[in-house]
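Q: Start with the shorter request: fold the first protein.
A: Done. Sequence, then structure:
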Amino acid sequence: MALEFLGSSNTSQGGGCPSFYRDTETGDIVVQGDALTDPDKIAQLLEVKPGEGFVVVPAVLFEYHAAKVSGA
């Protein structure tokens, strides 16, 4: 699997995350960012499967990179 960097929000103190990547073989999107750790919010998630993780993505990241993520 090769990942293509699509962009980041540049909102982090330490670098370029959260960030979006596209899997060049499947077109799937990979998100790098801070894990959701708030137990109250995690408890509200539906149908959580073993091994799933949750990443917090600022809305501005979608706004900045919507065309890249959609492949447009």
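Q: Next, the second protein, separately.
A: Sequence, then structure:
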Amino acid sequence: MIYINVNGIRAHALAMKIYRSEGVTDYTDEEVRTITEVAANYGTPAFIDGLNEQINNQD
């Protein structure tokens, strides 16, 4: 969703960071904000709920 729907080098870098991730990956507050905004605009309710669950259950 990020790669296709968001313009700019930062969005491209974030999409590649997600794509290439293996296991636990740290994201900046700005990256999390971008991910949640894209999810809210293009994701299904189930995806949004799952993403929010992952974000809210961080140690």
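Q: Describe the second briefly.
A: The two ends are 26 Å apart (CA to CA). The chain is about 70% helix and 0% strand.
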